[in-house]
Amino acid sequence: PVKRQGVLLKTSSTWGQCDLSDLTKKNVAYFMTLNQEGAWVEVDFLCGAIIPVAYSFASAHPIYSGYYPRSWELQASLDRRTWKILSNHINDETISHASPFGFWELHYENLPGLAQYFRYFRIILTGPNSFGTHELQISAFELYGRFLYIQEDKAGPPPPPAYAEERTGFEDKEELPAQPKPPKKKGGGKKR
Question: Could you give the angle at the alpha carbon of 171 between the alpha carbons of 170 and 174, nearest 5°?
Answer without folding.
Answer: 90
